[in-house]
Amino acid sequence: MREVGGPLRVETWPDPAPGRDGAVVRVEACGICRSDWHAWVGDMGARIRLPHVLGHEFVGVVEAVGPDVRRFKPGDRVIAPFSWGEGGCPQCRAGAEHLCDRRVTPGFDYWGGYARYVATPSADRSLVPLPDGVGFVVGASLGCRFMTAFHALVDRAAVRPGEWVAVHGLGGVGLSAVQILVTLGARVVGVDIRPEPLARAAALGAAATVDARTVDAAEAVREITGGGAQVAVDALGIAATCRAALQSLGKRGRHVQIGLTTRTGGEAADIPLPVDFIVRQEITFHGSLGMPAARYDDLLRLVAAGVLDPGRLVGRRVGLAEAGGVLEAMTRYETDGVTVIDRYEA
Ligand SMILES: [Zn+2]
Ligand SMILES: [Zn+2]
């Protein structure tokens, strides 16, 4: 990436070398994510230093390690947790390393997986073993979306079997949420304005779907659920989905906000909320960001055992040179399912 919003280019750079505590990973697959799009269109401002290599959802094989690395050796299969922490700050010490006070994130703060080789710092913390039973494309499809949905639903909203959960916005993270919720035994209502994601949600086991182009989404969810969902997820982060999610809740409902707003979309971090509704229904509003790296082992065990199958969300596999076109399609909300880069040849 050479300029904000400009075309991505494939260039040849010298192979990176590992730092003392770092590793070089030969990337085998990398998810393309709306967070990449946010960085590309400038939503992350000066945090992205140009030129830059995107890609925070990569898996691969350790190619080389620095002398201080203990947990990994060349040849190990690994996944890069999107939200790892350096280990020493109060958040990390409390187990909330995803909220690390000195957080650095692959693909944003250092060059990521839209490249054949990634030099990752603090390898013992910034990499997690990828079980043999989890293929590279499936591992990449976990991305930040599947683990974000897992943390939001299991750790933050504490969804229980039988509860009604309305998922507003059926992009990658929304469809991940649907699959995890169905596995948890929740009753899911999927909400979107596009027919393909609604069909995907139904195929994943959603009890009902709502086309928000044709009806008032909140009203429809309240009707389907007989008075309102117990949990609502805004998986997109625009005013329409955030408010509709909140208002689809019944009394004492729990709202989980996963979607971040976009500067270019007009919300620019602020969305007016129906405060009286929140007070009168005793609504709880949870923010949820990524997942602590330490939770990966639990999640990967479920994937390796076939209980969860994030690979079902993969809509397209592309070569590296096609990544820029995928981001352009995201501007028009034209992508369907998860897109994974799995070919890095020139
Ligand atoms: Zn920390
Ligand atoms: Zn992501």
Round the mean pLDDT to the nearest integer and report it. 94
How many domain units?
Answer: 2
Tally of DSSP helical segments: 12
> What is the global morphology?
globular
Indicate the radius of gyration in whole angstroms: 20 Å
CATH level-1 class of the largest domain: Alpha Beta
CATH topology description of the largest domain: Quinone Oxidoreductase, Chain A, domain 1
What can be said about the biggest beta sheet? 7 strands, mixed
Distance from N terminus to C terminus (CA atoms, Å) equals 17 Å
What is the tally of beta strands? 13
User: Helical content, roughly?
Assistant: 25-40%
Provide the low-confidence segments as ranges. Answer: none
Overall structural class, as computed from helix and strand content, comes to alpha/beta
Features:
346 residues; alpha/beta; Quinone Oxidoreductase, Chain A, domain 1; Rossmann fold; 7-stranded mixed β-sheet; 6-stranded parallel β-sheet; 12 helices; 28% helix; binds zinc ion
Describe this structure in words.
By secondary structure, this protein is of the alpha/beta class. It has two domains: 23-143 and 291-343, Medium-chain alcohol dehydrogenases, catalytic domain (Quinone Oxidoreductase, Chain A, domain 1, Alpha-Beta Complex), CATH 3.90.180; 146-287, Rossmann fold (3-Layer(aba) Sandwich), CATH 3.40.50.720. The chain is built from twelve helices and 13 strands. The strands form two sheets. Strands 1, 2, 3, 4, 5, 12 and 13 form a seven-stranded mixed β-sheet that branches. Helix 8 runs parallel beside helix 9. The two termini are 17 Å apart. The structure holds zinc ion (ZN) (2 copies).
